[in-house]
Amino acid sequence: MPYLGGKELAQVYRRAQSEGFALIANNFAEPNTLLGVLAAHEEKGSDLLVQVTMGAAKFAGGGKALAGLRALARYAQAVGAEAKVGVFLNLDHVTPDGIESFIRPALAEGLCASVMIDASALPFSENVRVTRSVVELARPYGVLVEGELGVIKGAEDHVVSDEAFYTDPEEAAQFVRETGVDLLAVSVGTEHGVSAGRELKLRPELARRIRDRLWAEGLARPLVLHGASGLSAEQVRTLVAAGVCKVNKDTTYQYVYARTAAEYFASHAGEVLPPAGVAFDPITFDAMGASWKPNKKVFDPRALGGEVRKAIQAVAAQMIDQVGSGGKSLYA
C-alpha cells in the first residue's frame, strides 16, 4: 500500500466520524517505534497514522529539522509501500515560527498528509490568523490542517504550559468557521507528559458539546485529543464516543522504549559491561589481560531493537482496541 496523502486521510476520518472510532496518532523519532506501531496496525487491520514533531525531526537530522523530517518521512514511505494498510504522516505541534522553515518545504516535497499548527498560546484572533494562513498554504497540496483551541497543560516537545484552559464550544465553532481547519484539537482535561488518567479532571461532556455545536453549525470536524498517554481504556472509549477521532500517543511509547531497554540491559549486564576492575578497550577489544569478552549477540543494536519493536507492537495493539479502529482500514 503506497504512502498516502490528505485526500485518502480525509476518507478515513469521515468513516471514523460515521462509525464512531478513532485513529491513534503515533509519534516517532527513529525506526524501531515506527516498525513496532506498523506491525500492530497490520496485525489489527487499522490504517496507520504516524506523526513527527519539529523536535523529533531535529533529533533525527542531527540538529537539522528539515533533514530529519525528510529522513523520517521517506523511511515511513519506504516501509509503507510494503504495508497491508494505509500509512499517513502528520506534522505534529508545529509552532508559528516553523511555518516557513518546516511546513512550507514539507508541503512542497509531499512529505505529509496533514499538519498540525499549534498557535493555541496566542490570543484568539492571532490563533485564527496564523491557523488560517496554514490552511491557505496547505489547500493547493490537498493536505489536511489541524488547529488547536484551548491550552493543554504540560510539555510536548518544546510547547509548554503550566495551566490548562478548556475549549469553549462557541469559540470552537467560530474558530472552525474562520480558519477552515479540517480537524480541531480541543482541551478537555488531558495533560502532556507523565500523567495518570485517574488524576485528571476529564470532561467528556465538553467534548460532546463541542462536537454537537460544530454539527449544529454545519461545521462537523473530527476532534483531536492531545496528551492522551496515561488514560485508561474506559476513558479513551468515552472520549471517542464523544466525538474524538484522533488520539495522540507519544509519552507511552517513550516509556515503553526506555523500560524495554533498561530491562534488556539489566538482564544482560554481565555480557556487555566488563567486570569490576577490568578496563576493556572497545577499539582493540583488549581486556588488559582478563579473559572476559562482551557477547556480540547481545550488544548488537539489532538485538535490543527487536525487543523494542515487539514491546511497542504489543502496547500499540492494545491502544488500537481502545479506539476501535481494528478491522476498519479502507486499504486492507
SSE order: HEHEHHEHEHEEEHEHEHEHHHH
Give the CATH architecture: Alpha-Beta Barrel
- Reading side by side through the largest sheet, how are the strands ordered? 1-2-3-4-5-8-9-10
Q: Poorly predicted ranges (pLDDT <50, ≥5 residues)? A: 159-163, 192-198
Strand percent estimate: 5-15%
Task: Characterize the structure shown.
With 332 residues, the protein is of the alpha/beta class. It has a single domain (6-258, 300-323), classed as Aldolase class I (TIM Barrel). It has 13 helices and ten strands. It has helices at 6-19, 31-44, 54-60, 65-80, 99-108, 124-138, 169-179, 204-216, 233-241, 251-267, 269-272, 296-299, 301-323, and strands at residues 23-27, 48-53, 87-94, 114-117, 144-149, 154-156, 159-161, 183-186, 223-225, 244-249. Strands 1-2-3-4-5-8-9-10 form an eight-stranded parallel barrel, surrounded by ten helices. The chain has a two-stranded antiparallel ribbon with strand order 6-7. Helix 9 (233-241) links the parallel strand 9 (223-225) and strand 10 (244-249). The longest helix has 23 residues, at 301-323. The termini are close together. Mean pLDDT is 92; it is low at 159-163 and 192-198.
Structural features:
single chain; 332 residues; alpha/beta; TIM Barrel; two-stranded antiparallel sheet; elongated
Q: Could you give a short description of this structure?
A:
With 332 residues, the protein is an alpha/beta fold. The chain has helices at residues 6-19, 31-44, 54-60, 65-80, 99-108, 124-138, 169-179, 204-216, 233-241, 251-267, 269-272, 296-299, 301-323; strands spanning 23-27, 48-53, 87-94, 114-117, 144-149, 154-156, 159-161, 183-186, 223-225, 244-249.
